[in-house]
Amino acid sequence: MADAFISVILEQFASIITWEAEQEIRLVVGVDEEVGKLEGNLRTVKAVLNDVEKRQATDEAVKLWLKKLEDISYEMDDVMDEWNTAMIKLKIGKDEEENTENAHVV
Fold this sequence. Notes:
Elements: H1 2-55, H2 60-105
Helix pairs in contact: 1-2
């Protein structure tokens, strides 16, 4: 009787863990796609900035727009750096957690 109860509990834990892992994977995959889009947009912005700078725009409105676009591109670049740093820290944390778990098993 107790074995059957424990078996049911273990199956429920396995189901919960599997579901959580699937949710985490979906979240990371979705975010990675968005990050890829942002990286593409950032490359486009930088290309436009380089093109406009080469043309030596003299219109004050264009210069203002160019400055704002440049500031935004720097902010986007900072966000991408922060994202990459966070992903590296997450991977390191998971690796350390796995190593700790494996050390206890041995």
